[in-house]
Amino acid sequence: MPRTPARRTATASRRTGGTAATVAAASPAPGGLVATVTALHRTAGGTAVAALVARSGASGATVGRRFAPFRRAATPQDLSVASLGPLDTLGFRGLTYPEGCTTGNDVRIEQLFRQTGGGSEPGYPKGFEEIRLIDQYLLHENRPQVATAMHAINGDFVAGANNTDQNIFMGTAKANKTHLNEVEAPLRQAMQGRTASGRAARYEAALTAHPPVALAADPTVLAWDTPGADIPGATEVSGTARWDPAPLARITHYVDTARLAAAPTEFPRIVDYSVVPDYKPDRLPAYIDRNIAEAEVKITEAEAELAGLTDPAERDELAEKIKNERWAVDRLRLNGPRLFPTTFTAEATYYLASYVPAGRWLVGRDAGTFDAQE
C-alpha cells in the first residue's frame, strides 16, 4: 500500500562528484612556472611566449582524479581579464524541463562568496518534490537516504548558487561526497588567502604601466623601481633589497617567481569553473528502477485489497492512495531521466598572474567526468 509522505529532511549538498570516468589533467608541475617565466624574460626582453612545461618535461594530458588548481602544466597567454566576462557571477544554462534540474552552470571566481564553507542548503527541484511528497520511498537511494540534491556550482563559491533549483541535479550521497573531496575542496583551498574582487584588473593595469625587469643577479626575481605603485602580489621593499638591483638603480617592489608555483594564493588568480550534468533519455538509476518495481507490487496488492472492501469510505480512501501512487510512478518514469543524470563533467581553467607583459596569465586546466549515481 502507498506510504504516507514523511516530514521533509534537508539533504545537505556540497556538490560532491562521483567515480572519475575521465580526467584530462597534466601531472603537477610546480617547477615549470619558474622555468617558463625566467625564459620569457631572457628571450627578446620578455616578448616571446613559450609553452609552459612541467619539470619532468611532460606537457600532455594524463589520467588523474583530484583537481590540483594552479599546479598543472600551464601556458602563458596574453589575454585580458575583461574577456572572461563578469567575475563572481553565477551563470545559469537552463533547466531540463520547467520544473526539472539544471543543464549546467558556470562561474569565474576571483573572490569566494564564503571562505570557510558550511551552511549549504540545496533546495529540491519542483519536479522532484511533487513525487517525494506522495511517496518519498520512490526516491530513496537506500533505506535511510533519499536521493541527494547536488549543487552544480557550490553554494559557497558565488552568491545565488545556494537554495535554488536552477543550480541542482539529483545524485547519490556518495557522488556528492566525491564531488566535494575531489573537486570543490581543492578549488576552495586554492581561492583562499589574499584575493579580492578587482585584484586581477589592478594587476593587469600595473603590468601595463610598470613592466618589471629581471634582475641580472637572479633572473627568477622580477623587480620594479616605481615608488608608491600598486602592484598586486608584489612585495614592497622598505629599505634596501637583498639583491643587487642591476639593471635597476634600486628595487621598490619585487616578485620571486619561484613562489608562483609554491604559493599561488599570494598572487592574482581566477578560476573559470563549470559543471554540466549528462542526462540520458529513458535512463534511470538502478535504485530508482528497483523502487518503481517495489511500488508496482504494492499497487497490485492494494488493488487486490480494494476489490475486497465493502465500506465506501475505506474504498474511497484506498482508491485515492492507489491513484496518487500510480501518478507518482508514472511521473517518475516520465521525468526521472531529466532529474537524475548518469554523469556530470566538471571543468576548471586556472588563470595565475605571470608578471610577464607578453603573457600576463599562466593558464592551466583540470577536467573530470564523474558518476552521478555511484
UniProtKB/TrEMBL annotation:
Residue numbers spanned by region Disordered: 1-24
Listed name of the protein: Uncharacterized protein
Originating organism: Streptomyces luteoverticillatus
